[in-house]
């Protein structure tokens, strides 16, 4: 979306009613508005399907926002429908072509940047939904796109004078060979992480795959990490504020695999990770139903893991190699974390 000042200027001509309606609905998720929340969604959808609504980039932004909001509220079937409509509209508009932004940018660099970001955000969302739910196939991964990469968030928000010269995906992917030392945005590295995700989704399932397949995947992940500039290696920017784009980029990379590559973890690390995930998801669950659902799933998995472990503790071989003190400590720790998980479950249920 356009930065607020530019968005308000465009809103004066009355051409972005559906987009504003989608914003109103998403905003209502963060405050208590009673029955109005459902009405805001109904109004946004009505405008989306109104024959008088132009089928343009602003409608695409509307569909994309509604897709994200519905998916976050566990309305996955409706979200998939809108995602499909978003993809079809994007390809009909040819927003994935290099010249779309200039042709439809009204001579305003910030609007041109908005169109570039719209394509790439749709691309990332398509990949993330495919990776998380595994009900879609990352359709846009297979379509060519020569759209310039987005700039940094602060450059976009600062307006036309802050937007730097354009860079493209091939510039980023070949920078080690070309000697190109220009900086690339966090959004660009998020796109690269999503492209890696698409490569994995197209590959043969890793479970039971050959060592060569596993090695290829590990090489892709390692290359993404080791070629990050120093300023992008964690989710904090130079002002020690959270860089949302890099946070998502790292999340996408680490999630692939946590699923596919990581072996057994140190038990204390695993306990801390479970606590961290439950706590974070509970906080997000105050707004997004999908996070609340995920928190319940994590609790359920954790409970199952520790129940199985407790059942195995009656076997003498389970404690082989441990001292009596280590055994007592392990049992006490397991009991503590089970109590914590069950306690958190009870609080969430209330």
From TrEMBL:
> Taxonomically, which superkingdom?
Eukaryota
- Record has Transmembrane helix as a keyword: no
Matches recorded under Pfam families: Fungal_trans
Question: This chain belongs to which protein, by name?
Answer: Xylanolytic transcriptional activator regulatory domain-containing protein
Q: Does the keyword Transcription regulation apply?
A: no
Question: What InterPro entries is this protein classified in?
Answer: XnlR_reg_dom
Which Gene Ontology molecular-function terms are recorded?
A: DNA binding; zinc ion binding
Q: Name one GO biological process term.
A: DNA-templated transcription
Q: Which residues form the signal peptide?
A: none
Occurrences of domain Xylanolytic transcriptional activator regulatory (ranges): 60-153
Keyword terms? Nucleus
Q: Which organism is it from?
A: Parascedosporium putredinis
């Amino acid at each position: 979306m356009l930065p607020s000042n530019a968005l308000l200027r465009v809103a004066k001509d009355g051409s972005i009613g559906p987009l504003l309606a989608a914003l109103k609905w998403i905003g209502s998720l963060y405050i208590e508005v009673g029955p109005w929340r459902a009405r805001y969604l109904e109004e946004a959808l009505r405008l989306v399907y109104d024959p008088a609504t132009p089928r343009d980039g602003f409608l695409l932004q509307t569909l994309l926002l509604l897709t994200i909001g519905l998916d976050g509220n566990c309305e996955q079937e409706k979200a998939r429908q809108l995602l499909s409509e978003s993809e079809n509209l994007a390809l009909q508009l040819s927003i994935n072509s290099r010249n779309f932004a200039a042709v439809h940018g009204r001579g305003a660099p910030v609007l041109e940047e908005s169109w570039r970001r719209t394509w790439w955000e749709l691309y990332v969302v398509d990949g993330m939904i495919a990776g998380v739910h595994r009900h879609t196939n990352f359709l846009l991964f297979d379509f060519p796109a020569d759209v310039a990469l987005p700039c940094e968030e602060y450059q976009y928000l600062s307006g036309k004078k802050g937007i730097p010269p354009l860079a493209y995906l091939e510039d980023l992917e070949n920078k080690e060979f070309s000697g190109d030392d220009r900086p690339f945005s966090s959004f660009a590295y998020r796109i690269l992480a999503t492209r890696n995700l698409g490569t994995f989704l197209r590959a043969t399932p890793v479970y039971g795959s050959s060592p060569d397949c596993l090695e290829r995947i590990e090489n892709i992940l390692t290359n993404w990490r080791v070629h990050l500039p120093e300023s992008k290696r964690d989710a904090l920017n130079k002002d020690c504020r959270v860089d949302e784009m890099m946070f998502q980029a790292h999340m996408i990379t680490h999630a692939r695999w946590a699923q596919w590559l990581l072996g057994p973890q140190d038990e204390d690390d695993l306990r801390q990770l479970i606590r961290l995930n439950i706590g974070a998801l509970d906080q997000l669950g105050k707004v997004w139903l999908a996070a609340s659902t995920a928190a319940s799933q994590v609790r359920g998995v954790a409970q199952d893991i520790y129940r199985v472990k407790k059942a195995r503790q009656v076997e003498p071989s389970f404690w082989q190699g441990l001292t009596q003190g280590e055994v007592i400590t392990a049992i006490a720790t397991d009991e503590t974390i089970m109590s914590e998980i069950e306690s958190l479950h009870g609080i969430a249920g209330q």
